[in-house]
Structures are given as structure tokens and as C-alpha cells.
Design goal:
The structure holds 2 protein chains of 2 kinds. In chain A, the strands form 4 sheets. Chain A has a 6-stranded parallel β-sheet, sandwiched between helices. In chain A, strands 11-10-9-12-13-14 form a 6-stranded parallel β-sheet, sandwiched between helices. In chain A, strands 16-15-17-18-20-19 form a 6-stranded parallel β-sheet, sandwiched between helices. In chain A, helix 1 (about 15-25) packs across helix 2 (about 40-45) and helix 15 packs across helix 21 (about 515-525). Helix content of chain A is about 35%, strand content about 15%. Chain A folds into 3 domains: about 10-180, Rossmann fold, CATH 3.40.50.970; about 195-355, TPP-binding domain (Rossmann fold, 3-Layer(aba) Sandwich); about 365-535, Rossmann fold. The longest helix of chain A has 15 residues, at about 60-70. The model of chain A is unreliable at about 5-10 (pLDDT under 50). The relative contact order of chain A is 0.11. By secondary structure, chain A is of the alpha/beta class. Chain B is of the alpha+beta class. Chain B has a single domain, classed as 2-Layer Sandwich (Alpha-Beta Plaits), CATH 3.30.70.260. Helix content of chain B is about 20%, strand content about 35%. Chain B contains 2 helices and 4 strands, in the order E-H-E-E-H-E. Chain B has a 4-stranded antiparallel β-sheet with strand order 2-3-1-4, with helices on one face. The longest helix of chain B has 11 residues, at about 15-25. Chain B starts with a strand and ends in a 19-residue tail after the last strand. The model of chain B is unreliable at about 75-90 (pLDDT under 50). Classes of the chains: A alpha/beta, B alpha+beta. The interface of A and B includes residues 196, 317 and 322 of A.
């Protein structure tokens, strides 16, 4: 990109060098929050072409940068001051780490001479974040800044993406230095996938009677969606998806048996438990997907494709592993013929048997049906961001996705409070998209302050707030697994959410009755500007099916046991 | 089961802490640890760890770190010979 021309050519402050290095790496937007030790950077920021979004809590900034990174597949950038500013970023950094999201995090730090003296707003953010970053730096010399920034972007975006932290002491950001810019670092060539392993995989697939593919989040991350779809079309192998793999093939594709796992579809869980060969593409055998690991796909051999060698045989032994970029591996695996038609028919049979039903006798508005209607209303250009809880699982089950980037969800970390800042990051990244944040009454309060960010910048995000006056998923577990001993889950004293939204300058309305749903959804999706639709639902509604913890995936509960409630 | 590893680290700040932290977090108990200088500011670490988890998995997890230049797992083979599809990993991601 064309660098800024407004800065003096040679002798500059560390802050100016940092910001120009960001621009040279293609950064246009930053999410952040100013404070003491990062002030030199904010001072220089106003003289750049960078657009800064002031979030109202650093966690909001980090989660917005996360979503920006997911949607663009370029590192989202967030920035905060030292001490509490930096620690408030931690959840967002961990979220990006767990879901392999490219992110560059810039934190202010107390001056070098004060580090290690318990100075005001000093924390060792480098040490605190060691387990949740792909890499991190403390900048010790102004002249190092261009190299550090270039490396940070290369590391964040290359291979298996992840967050990279740059901790910037105030004497470095305020100090002056002569600088030589080097061009952004190109990603190293990834070795071609092993041809012998690909041949073995093809032979195993040719011989398999009951093959199944698990599509994971790595397919979208590596931009391999089209190649994956070609592979499936060519081989006819039935497909299930992890939470992050949803949309890798369209939800209504023939041969797609749905999401597997704890709240997965019965068809997917039966297929996975009955297959004799499992080809896992860009997924990592997460416990929420596998259920009881030793009983997961017990009679299956495993082909594992992943860019990260450390995922191979971490939890489930791979009979064949193909490490590297997914696209050339998928192109290179050429089994004979198509998958066994009897097995494919069996999978279709399960899909019909376990098709979602929307005629459940519920009191009031039925959230699954509402979500299905939402995704039917605007399937083409809609991005749905979620929080965490029952509504997140209902979105995964009942919304239809034609592309994995339509579904932004906190998969690994399970961060309540992700949805609203993620919607901000997604809308900033893709202004032309309709961005809907589906949230719950528990989750929305985790980052409710970001309503102010929507209002401040006029960011057109639609919020669908499913309010069951409870921490629903915890309440469900207490109902089922803790003998109905409800502990700290009832939220009958929730605020008037529509009133809260209006106080922030966001249009809002509330509905309680099923007959109001259709018109209200139309209102939400068509009104100009940010808006909230607050939907009251039954507080005792549960997410089904449910694989109880420690059970294999085919032991799904479809409803409350007889002696329940 | 006990595993011995030689880990070559680059000169970057926090490299030792990052590698040792990973070892413990990934379920390996640190026994012996000897750190020596290895030229150009780098470090060489000889560690002995114990765990029910396989040593070659720890090797691959260490190799992911940008600070880690190389890892040698001794004396056990780093590859599962029954599993020829897994090829040696010599690059980090």
C-alpha cells in the first residue's frame, strides 16, 4: 500500500514509526482505548490516515479486532494502555488464540526504567499473555519497530493464524529514532503435502464402506472452501461440520448431515459413530465435538489434514496425517469412484429422521423457529455473530449458512460478550453486509457498553436479543445434572433492554407473542441504522439434543428424562 | 514416561520462559533443566520431562514457537513407525 507522506522522512518518534509500519502492513482500522502509557501513540494517531474506533472497554476492542480478522483473513488490530487496559484485552486475545484468528495487539507499557518496579499501571502483559499468543514482543529499541511490526503481521496471518502482542514501553513510543523501513515480510512457502500420505489417504477412501468427512474451521481460515466443495462433489462423501466449520458447504447440501457434537444433529452424531473412515479436515477433535473421546468414531480409521503438525495425534491417533495447506492436499487426494451409495443413503435417512422440527408445543415465541426465519429472510449477505449459551447453539442448529464467514462465533473459548463487539468488527470490515448480533440476556450485559460504540460511529448492526430471564445453558445443566438446584441463574430482574438500547441512542422494540415475530423481523432487517429487537422467550426452554458430559455422541438426550423438572 | 529434549532457542526476550511454560502447560512435568549460551545470544536447553503424553507431541508443540529454532527428542524416535503417513516436521507454522 502507499505509505503516508505526512511524516518527516528520517528522524521520527517511536509512535510515528509504529503507525507508519502498521499502514505499510495494510492496516486501515484500529479498535482501541487510550490511556497513560499509550498516549504518545494516540497523539501521533491523529496525524495518520488510520481510522480508530474507540470501543468502550478494551475487551470490546479486542473482540471487534477478532471479528475483523475472521472476516478479512488479515490481522485485526487492537490497542490499549498498560495495566488494566492491557489486562482487559486478555479475554479477546485468548478468544483469537483458541479460534486461530489473526490479530495484532499493541499495548502501552510503563517506561523501560520503571519496568519491574511495580510502577503505576504496570503489569507484565508479556508474561500474562504467554500462553495465549502465537508470539509476543517487548520493543527495546525504536529502530526495531518496523521489523517487529512486519514480523508480527507475518506471524499473525501465516500458517495457523493467531494473535501477536507488541508491548511498547512509553520511552520507546515517545523516544526518537532514525528508521529504515523494510518491506512487509512475505509468508514463507509451505512445503507441498506429502504425496505418499495423499496416496494412502486415497486408497483408504477408495476401500472405505462408510467414509465421513469432518469439516473444521481450518477450511475457511485457509481459504479452501471452494476446493473442499469440489472434493466433496467429486467423491460424494457425506460431510459433518464442527461449530466453526458450519457453512463450509451450504447447510442444505445433499450429503451434509449437520453439526456434530454435544448439541449437534442426531444425523451427524450417528454418522460419525457408525463410519469406518473419518477424514478430518482442519479440525482438532475438540471435546465438545467428540463427546467421550475413547468411544468417538470407535470403528473408524482416521485421516487428518491440518496445517498444524502439533494437532496430529494430539487427542486421536491419525492413521494417515497430511500436514500443510489444505487446498493442495484436497486436490491431491483422488480416491477411485464415489462413496458407497448404501452408506450415503443411510446418511440421508438419518438426516430425514433427525430433521429439526418447529412445531414444538412451547409457550410463547419458539427461538429455533425464529432463528430459522431470520436466516431465511436474508441469506445472501448476512453475517450472524453470536454470544455464548443456548442462543449460540440454536443459531448453529437452525440458521442456514452458505459460507463459513457468515457465522462468527466464539468456538474455543466460549466468550460471553463476543457477539456485540464481533458485530462491530464485522460491519467495519464488510460495510455492505447485513450484520446481525444474536445475543442472550446474560451475554449482552457482558459488553453492553458497546452500544455506545454503535451510536458513536453510526454502525448499522442489528441486535436480536433472546431474553429468557436466565443464564439459560447453565440453568439447563442445573435442571438436568444438578437435580434442579438452581444457583445464581435467574435474571428476572433484568433491565428493560429496549429502554437500555434507546438510552444509548439505538432504536429498539420488544415482542412477546409468536404472531409478532414475522413483522418484527422485517422491521429489524429493514430499518435504517442500528436497532435492537428484544424477544421474550420461555425461561425453561432447553437446547436439544444434548450429549451428556462423558457420554459418547450417539447417547444423545432428546428431551428431559421422565423424572425431570 | 520420561523424555529428554534438547531445545535450541533464538535470542529473543522471553524465549526460555515461553518454552518452559509450554512444557508444563501441556502436561509435562519438568525434571532436570540446564540452560547454556549457544551463540548469537541464543540459548540451548537440556530438559528432562515426564508425562503419560507422548514426547513427540511435545516436540511438535515446542516447534510451533517462533523462539524455538530446533528440538531434538532423545533417544526415542520422534516418529511412530507404525504410522508412516506422519512425516517429519521440520518447520514451524
Amino acid at each position: 500500500m502507499k505509505p503516508s507522506t505526512h511524516l518527516a522522512p528520517e528522524f521520527r518518534s517511536g509512535s510515528e514509526i509504529l503507525l507508519e509500519a502498521l499502514e505499510r502492513n495494510g492496516v486501515k482500522q484500529i479498535f482501541g482505548y487510550p490511556g497513560g502509557t499509550i498516549m504518545p501513540v494516540y497523539d501521533a494517531l491523529v496525524r495518520t490516515g488510520l481510522k480508530h474506533y474507540l470501543c468502550r472497554h478494551e475487551q470490546g476492542a479486542a473482540l471487534a479486532a477478532d471479528a475483523y480478522g475472521r472476516v478479512t483473513r488479515r490481522a485485526g488490530v487492537c490497542m490499549a494502555t498498560s495495566g488494566p487496559g492491557a489486562t482487559n484485552l486478555v479475554t479477546g486475545i485468548a478468544n483469537a488464540f483458541m479460534d486461530s484468528v489473526p490479530m495484532v495487539v499493541i499495548t502501552g507499557q510503563v517506561p523501560s526504567a520503571l519496568q519491574g518496579t511495580d510502577a503505576f499501571q504496570e503489569v507484565d502483559i508479556f508474561g500474562i499473555t504467554l500462553p495465549i499468543v502465537k508470539h509476543s514482543y517487548i520493543v527495546r529499541d525504536v529502530a526495531d519497530i518496523p521489523r517487529v511490526v512486519n514480523e508480527a503481521f507475518q506471524l499473525a496471518e501465516g500458517g495457523r493464524p493467531g494473535p501477536v502482542l507488541i508491548d511498547l514501553p512509553k520511552d520507546i513510543s515517545a523516544g526518537m529514532g532514525e528508521v529504515i523501513y523494510t518491506p512487509p515480510v512475505k509468508q514463507p512457502e509451505v512445503p507441498a503435502p506429502d504425496s505418499r500420505a495423499m496416496q494412502m489417504a486415497a486408497e483408504m477412501l477408495s476401500k472405505a464402506r462408510r467414509p465421513l468427512v469432518i469439516a473444521g474451521g481450518g477450511i475457511a481460515i485457509s481459504d479452501s472452501v471452494e476446493v473442499f466443495r469440489e472434493f466433496i462433489a467429486r467423491t460424494g462423501i457425506p460431510v459433518t461440520a464442527t461449530l466453526k466449520g458450519l457453512g463450509v458447504i451450504p447447510s442444505d447440501s445433499p450429503g451434509f448431515v449437520g453439526m456434530l457434537g454435544m448439541h449437534g444433529n442426531g444425523a451427524a452424531n450417528h454418522a460419525v459413530q457408525n463410519c469406518d473412515l473419518l477424514m478430518v479436515v482442519g479440525a482438532r477433535f475438540d471435546d465438545r465435538a467428540t463427546g467421550h473421546l475413547a468411544q468417538f468414531a470407535k470403528s473408524a480409521r482416521v485421516i487428518h489434514l491440518d496445517i498444524d503438525a502439533a494437532e496430529i495425534s494430539k487427542l486421536r491417533k491419525a492413521d494417515v496425517a497430511i500436514v500443510g495447506e489444505l487446498a493442495p492436499a484436497l486436490e491431491g487426494i483422488r480416491p477411485d469412484g464415489k462413496a458407497n451409495t448404501g452408506w450415503c443413503a443411510q446418511c440421508v435417512g438419518w438426516t430425514k429422521e433427525f430433521a429439526w422440527r418447529y412445531d414444538a408445543p412451547v409457550k410463547g415465541i419458539y427461538a429455533p423457529k425464529l432463528l430459522r426465519d431470520l436466516s431465511r429472510a436474508k441469506p445472501e449477505d448476512m453475517i450472524i455473530t453470536c454470544d455464548v449459551g443456548q442462543h449460540q447453539m440454536w443459531v448453529a442448529q437452525h440458521c442456514k449458512f452458505d459460507n463459513p464467514l457468515q457465522h462468527l462465533t466464539s468456538g474455543g473459548l466460549g466468550t460471553m460478550g463476543y457477539g456485540l463487539p464481533a458485530a462491530i468488527g464485522a460491519k467495519v470490515a464488510r460495510p455492505e453486509a447485513t450484520v446481525v448480533c444474536v445475543s442472550g440476556d446474560g451475554s449482552i450485559m457482558m459488553n453492553v457498553q458497546e452500544l455506545a460504540t454503535l451510536n458513536r460511529y453510526g454502525i448499522d448492526v442489528k441486535i436480536l436479543l433472546l431474553d429468557n430471564s436466565a443464564l439459560g445453558l447453565v440453568r439447563q445443566w442445573q435442571e438436568i445434572f444438578f437435580d434442579g438446584n438452581y444457583s445464581e441463574v435467574h435474571l428476572a430482574d433484568n433491565p428493560d433492554f429496549a429502554g437500555v438500547a434507546r438510552a444509548f441512542g439505538i432504536q429498539a422494540r420488544s415482542i412477546q407473542k409468536p404472531e409478532e415475530v414475522s413483522e418484527a423481523l422485517e422491521w429489524l432487517l429493514n430499518i435504517q441504522g442500528a436497532a435492537m429487537l428484544h424477544v421474550s422467550i420461555d425461561s425453561m426452554e432447553n437446547v436439544w439434543p444434548l450429549v451428556p458430559p462423558g457420554k459418547p455422541n450417539h447417547k444423545m438426550m432428546q428431551s428431559m428424562p421422565e423424572n425431570g423438572r | 514416561m520420561e523424555h529428554s529434549l534438547n531445545i535450541q532457542l533464538s535470542a529473543s526476550e522471553g524465549a526460555v520462559l515461553r518454552a518452559l511454560g509450554l512444557i508444563e502447560r501441556r502436561g509435562f512435568s519438568l525434571g532436570k533443566c540446564a540452560i547454556s549460551e549457544a551463540g548469537e545470544g541464543g540459548r540451548s536447553m537440556e530438559v528432562t520431562v515426564s508425562s503419560s503424553r507422548p514426547g513427540d507431541l511435545l516436540k511438535r508443540q515446542l516447534e510451533r514457537l517462533h523462539d524455538v529454532k530446533s528440538v531434538e527428542l532423545k533417544p526415542a524416535a520422534t516418529m511412530n513407525k507404525k504410522n508412516p503417513g506422519i512425516r517429519p516436521i521440520n518447520r514451524r507454522i
